[in-house]
Amino acid sequence: MAISVFVTKWAISVSVSIDIIWRFCQNICMSEIVPQPDKQDLILNAAFAAFSTYGYRRTSMDDIAKGAGISRSALYLHWRNKEDVFRSLAARYFEEVLRDMARALADASQGAEAALMAAFVAKDGKFMEAVLTTPHGSELLDAGFAISGDVVAMAEGRLVAVLADWLARRGLPDGIGKPAEVAETILTALVGLKKTAKTLDSYRLGEARLARLFARAIGEMPR
Questions:
Q1: Within a domain: residue 5?
Q2: In b/e form, how buried is each residue of 53-88, taking b as 16+ CB within 10 angstroms?
Q3: Pair (65, 50) in one structural domain
């Protein structure tokens, strides 16, 4: 009888121990496989720094891992290659841009020119500063379109919608087009500016000029 009770207690103890170990391992594995928001941002920030410093072609997964303070094997648990990392970086960039651009246009206290300039700066995020102030800027711009073309196209459509909504709420003069058409024209002009600007200062001056021109076009009179 005593032996039977001992065996039963031992079996229960082993079962509980195995369950605890299994839960512990499962939690560890899940934390490695699924990057938490803070950890993902840390890795993507390191990737942005690496791409800005070395350019897309020269940046390696090892560079990104070192910058994030993790092992290369841990990085590969989250992303397959640097192209995958770059696409995630582009997706995060556009989510931030959409949020900041909508916020800039929501300020009803500013005129059209100020609102457009704020929206342009919000649309740039940190990317245009890197493009125009680092040796590998043009390479990053080219990589953005080549590697993340579908991400860019989808985001541009959403940006047009945000700007078109603002234009519709303001109202447009007759004869210049529908809000979506005018929004697309404005954003297309910004793309052209990106390709021709040589310095960040000249780019900002170009943005200010575009903001003034389009503000006049949509009906804001000069003060």
A1: yes
A2: ebbbeebebebbbebbebeeeebeebbeebeebbbb
A3: yes
Average pLDDT estimate for 61-66: 96
What is the phi-psi region of residue 71: left when phi exceeds 0, alpha when psi lies from -120 to 50, beta otherwise? beta
Do 64 and 82 form a contact (C-beta atoms < 8 A)?
Answer: yes
Residues 10 and 93 in one domain: no
Pair 81, 137 in one domain? yes
Least confident piece of the model among 46-50, 106-110, 116-120, 158-162: 106-110
Q: In this prediction, what percent of the chain has a pLDDT beyond 90? A: 61
Total number of domains in the chain: 2
**Is residue 48 domain-resident?**
yes
Output the six-digit token pair for 77: 């648990």
What gap in Å lies between CA 19 and CA 68, rounded to an integer? Answer: 34
